[in-house]
Amino acid sequence: MVGKITFTMIKPDAVEANNIGPILAMINKAGFKIVAMKYMRLTKEQAGNFYAVHKERPFYGELTEYMSSGPIVAAILSKENAVSDYRKLIGATDPTKAEDGTIRKQFAKSIAANAVHGSDSDENAEIESNFFFSQLERF
Ligand code: UDP
Ligand code: MG
To answer: Which of the listed residues 66, 69, 114 should we mutate to test ligand 1's pocket, taking the one with most ligand atoms within 8 A of CB?
Structure first.
């Protein structure tokens, strides 16, 4: 399965703005299949564990506060070259730098509230998928 899956979240700003549907439509249109999906709210502690790699970064406190501020959609997506193709589809972290046609260009509010998460490597796609989903929840 290496290279075939990536993990995404639709972040609280995009859920709040009723953009779950349009974002899922872009994901499907780009050729990704949904392997697993859930609608849930993270505690601040869970958000902190998910983003533990960023613990030393200045934005960590704000990020974990924000990611636990409302419900999210978590999903595993599959496609050939899932990680890199999905990073292209979501666009740059800073939406002012994201290209036209990307999810972040269209839906992100700011560098923090940037609509979606996408894994940055096959290894992290596995780790992040396992953080949210058991094997019984994948199809
Ligand atoms: N982030 C932030 N300020 C920054 C950089 C990142 O608030 O200066 C947030 C933003 O929500 C981003 C997340 O932290 O999506 C993780 O940062 P990363 O550098 O991994 O960006 P990504 O992989 O999401 O593009
Ligand atoms: Mg990242």
So the answer is: 114
Which tokens is 28 given?
A: 């499907």
Q: Output the CA 67–ligand 1 centroid distance in Å.
A: 11
DSSP 125: H
- pLDDT of amino acid 1: 46
pTM of the model: 0.97
Picking from 2, 30, 6, the residue whose alpha carbon sits closest to that of residue 89 is: 30
Ligand 1 atom with the shortest distance to the CA of 114: 11
Average confidence score pLDDT of the chain: 97
For the chain, state the CA radius of gyration: 14
**Can you give the pLDDT at residue 9?**
99
Q: Mark whether 54 is an active-site residue.
A: no
Give the domains, in start order, of the chain with CATH numbers. 5-137 (3.30.70.141)
Residue 5 in tokens: 């899956």
Q: Is the pLDDT of residue 20 over 80?
A: yes
CB-CB contact of 72 with 10 (8 Å): yes
